Backbone:
């Protein structure tokens, strides 16, 4: 058991730190959360900066350990997060890299790395959330095209996306996991209507996407027809693996700020609150160690994050909500003022036990796939 | 960074596990429950011969010359089978009290909180135990005395090794719960197919894995804040784990015959060591301010 950087890792860390020290002061000001075109430009601009410095493909090429250092250092330095690049860099991109043809890789991967194209994820539907395989958006073959009709929901970044990784049903007769196909759909194709949905935090982070006989070339299919479920599962673990690393580092910083604020406003003298902060310190230290453990295990297993990601996600999503509930207790009445820091984060923390597989679904996964308990009838 | 067990660490853990499976199986555990207050001296010497108490003593001093990580793995195994006796105190006394390292001398200590485990059976007591009053211990496998004043300084290594024992007990609670959930049938199916039971088991595992990462990391860094964190998470994993394990066992869980109560009682007892978890929470709260000031 070793927590220290290897000489190569230490060198990577030092070089990255030095580069961040130079690159970050040159960043443009952060756009407001409601300025979507501004946010897209900002996030893509950062990705381009990473590309020029040779860090763009760190999520794909590098070992999990190097990825961890990258996420840790960028967060520590206050660098932007992937933002609108999330699906392209952490989901659709790795899927295409693993399952796409040479031509598909050449067409779609470089623009993701260079920060030129944004992807969104069209998986969930009104009738297919936790039970994703029940999706009903249909696709028919018509010559060299698929014709797609149906609707998707909760599609993050749909308004600013160029491409959508889309799951469609190509064989309604087959068992539900076997009739699904993975398509790359250009978001400017005729027949697509995007209707933004307002979240409880007031902003429009996600949208409904209506598809009315949208034509998608057969060449945009990744993997075989009706093999889309397997294609998706290959990379779904990415989302639950290292996706939250930077956030854990950020939570630890917030915790320190909370302590300072509590000390300033006098609530530090309340032993119950103080001990809760101490308990959260334990919690986030442990989550950081669990991340290091999972990454080391993944590295030993050849790179892919395993179902250990479900264990992490279950605990982390709860811890994040506890953190911001505690922040509200530190703030007191000010926790009702949405202009105060942490109040918006408290609202957005509520999605963590739902998005990317609810906590109940994660518990099913842990119980059935790790502990080997029988599936319910 | 390679934060996983090395081959040697795996071998050491398996060796301790095999020794304990041979010398302290379930029959031995139940026999110990039936003979309260009696320590198995032969087993104690065997542990000594295997190096259990001398793991961190240098080879020059007749020890094994290993570190905290290996010691934590050994104590985790002890916690897994609920091995009775003042293991932490004797381990800490190795090299300082003659015979402790070899398992010839049983050493106990006055805990920071004022409790003394195994006072009557021990050969040597570290700290002044005069005036200690016996308690009717809630844990049938740990006789207890209590000092009116108490509160000596707390050794962080003792806290860490206790956390390692809690981790082992938590792991055992998870294993027992899952075994029972697979085997016991109601309404024509294993109770483990019911989601309410399934989710209890999943949370058991999550707490174990989070505690494991914290305990192993604290063993590597030996940082006081990491040790405090390990303690809090391991206490939680053991106590809540044993509670949930009890719930999964239904009426059987409330009996003396089932082992579940032994897990819970020992876990409760260990949470009181070193003044309880409050100290650790305060340490970690203070750590937030000092890190923010840096
Ligand atoms: C902020 C945010 C962003 C998102 N972004 C995207 C995106 O970009 N693309 C995309 O495709 N999707 C996205 N989603 C959708 C997300 O994946 C789904 O919301 C999630 O999978 C749950 O599906 P659902 O909302 O239909 O809830 P439901 O599946 O209807 O669940 C409702 C409740 O029932 C419980 N439940 C359901 N089934 C079971 C079961 N078998 N056992 C026990 N309990 C069960 C759930 O845990 C939950 O508590 C996003 C969601 C959020 C909140």
Residues:
């Amino acid at each position: 058991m070793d927590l220290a950087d290897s000489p190569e890792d230490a060198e990577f860390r030092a070089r990255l730190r030095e580069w961040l020290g130079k690159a970050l002061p040159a960043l443009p000001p952060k756009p407001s959360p409601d300025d979507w075109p501004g946010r897209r430009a900002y996030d893509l601009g950062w990705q381009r900066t990473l590309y020029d410095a040779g860090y763009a493909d760190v999520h794909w090429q590098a070992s999990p350990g190097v990825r961890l250092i990258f996420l840790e250092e960028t967060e520590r330095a206050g660098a932007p997060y992937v933002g609108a690049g999330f699906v392209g860099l952490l989901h659709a991109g790795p899927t295409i890299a693993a399952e796409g043809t040479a031509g598909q890789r050449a067409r779609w991967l470089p623009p993701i790395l260079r920060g030129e194209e944004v992807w969104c994820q069209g998986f969930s539907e009104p009738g297919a959330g936790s039970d994703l395989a029940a999706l009903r958006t249909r696709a028919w073959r018509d010559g060299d095209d698929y014709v797609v009709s149906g609707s998707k929901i909760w599609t993050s970044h749909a308004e600013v996306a160029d491409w959508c990784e889309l799951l469609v049903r190509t064989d309604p007769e087959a068992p539900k996991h076997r009739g699904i196909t993975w398509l790359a759909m250009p978001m400017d194709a005729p027949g697509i209507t995007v209707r933004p949905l307002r979240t409880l935090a007031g902003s429009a982070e996600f949208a409904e996407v209506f598809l009315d006989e949208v034509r998608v070339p057969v060449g945009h299919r990744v993997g075989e027809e009706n093999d889309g479920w397997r294609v998706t599962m290959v990379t779904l673990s990415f989302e639950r693996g290292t996706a939250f690393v930077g956030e854990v580092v950020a939570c630890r910083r917030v915790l320190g700020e909370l302590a300072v604020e509590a000390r300033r406003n006098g609530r530090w003298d309340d032993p119950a609150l103080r001990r809760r902060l101490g308990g959260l310190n334990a919690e986030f230290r442990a989550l950081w160690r669990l991340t290091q453990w999972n990454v080391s295990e993944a590295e030993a297993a050849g790179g892919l994050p395993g179902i250990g990601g479900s264990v992490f996600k279950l605990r982390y999503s709860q811890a994040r909500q506890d953190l911001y509930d505690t922040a509200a207790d530190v703030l007191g009445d000010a926790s009702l003022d949405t202009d105060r820091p942490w109040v918006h984060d408290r609202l957005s923390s509520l999605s963590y036990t739902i998005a990317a597989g609810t906590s109940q679904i994660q518990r099913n996964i842990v119980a059935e796939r790790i502990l080997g308990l029988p599936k319910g009838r | 960074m390679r934060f996983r067990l090395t081959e040697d660490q795996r071998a050491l853990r398996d060796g301790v596990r095999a020794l304990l499976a041979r010398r302290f199986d379930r029959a031995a555990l139940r026999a110990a429950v039936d003979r309260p207050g009696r320590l198995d001296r032969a087993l104690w010497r065997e542990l000594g011969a295997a190096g259990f108490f001398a793991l961190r003593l240098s080879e020059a001093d007749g020890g094994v010359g290993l570190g905290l990580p290996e010691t934590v793995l050994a104590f985790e195994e002890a916690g897994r089978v609920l091995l009775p006796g003042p293991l932490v105190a004797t381990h800490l006394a190795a090299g300082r009290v003659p015979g402790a390292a070899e398992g010839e001398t049983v050493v106990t200590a006055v805990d920071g909180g004022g409790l003394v485990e195994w006072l009557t059976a021990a050969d040597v007591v570290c700290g002044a135990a005069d005036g200690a009053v016996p308690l009717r211990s809630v844990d049938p496998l740990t006789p207890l005395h209590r000092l009116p004043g108490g509160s000596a300084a707390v050794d962080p290594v003792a806290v860490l090794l206790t956390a390692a024992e809690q981790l082992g007990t938590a792991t055992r609670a998870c294993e027992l719960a899952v075994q029972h959930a697979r085997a016991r049938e109601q309404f024509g199916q294993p109770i483990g197919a019911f989601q309410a039971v399934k989710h209890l088991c999943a949370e058991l595992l999550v707490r174990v894995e989070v505690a494991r990462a914290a305990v192993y990391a604290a063993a590597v860094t030996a940082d006081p804040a990491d040790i405090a964190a390990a303690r809090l998470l391991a206490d939680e994993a053991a106590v809540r784990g044993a509670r949930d394990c009890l719930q999964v066992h239904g009426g059987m869980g409330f009996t003396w015959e089932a082992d579940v109560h032994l897990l819970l009682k020992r876990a409760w007892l260990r949470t009181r060591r070193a003044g309880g978890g409050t100290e650790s929470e305060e340490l970690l709260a203070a750590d937030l301010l000092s890190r923010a000031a840096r």
About this structure: Residues 18 and 87 of chain B are 18 Å apart (CA to CA). Chain B has two domains: 7-146, 156-293. The mean pLDDT of chain B is 96. The domain at 156-293 of chain B is CATH 1.20.140.10 (Butyryl-CoA Dehydrogenase, subunit A; domain 3).
